[in-house]
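Input.
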Amino acid sequence: MLTAHEFNQRGAAMLPGHLGIVITKVENGEVHAELPVRTELMAPNGFLHAGSIVTLADTCAGYGCMASLPAGAVGFTTVELKSNHLGTAREGRVECRATPVHRGRTTQVWDATVTAGGKTIALFLRTSAWEEIVEVVVVSPLLAPFFRKMANHVAYLRLHTVFLFVTADVI
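Output.
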């Protein structure tokens, strides 16, 4: 599992680093992060932009998913995310704590709570699905091009299956 420092290094040149998100704790089943409130993250109305809060929560929950991917998973993607904004911040820092609600066979659901000054300002729920390698074993060289195309389509569906096709010319 990656450490908080390693997640911070990975995100440094990406959106989390650009916004100033700092991962402070990564354990199996829990991720903490914080974001200093700055002018660049504010909406024109003078409050912290909702997109800044969503990005903090999504990063925290996404890193939690990444830290707990099952063996064989090669990546993941967000399937759904939902946020409820209960408050905002104008200064200081906002903190986030993400924990898993469900770690299933093909998806994970992570809950994140964002706080400012000890007060909950947003609740967030993220569902992720992971990608696994698809293996296709073709016994007949005549069918190889067809099954290569099919494998690309099956991989797009993020399924992990081993197909073994035996043709009459091999038997």
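The mean pLDDT is 84.
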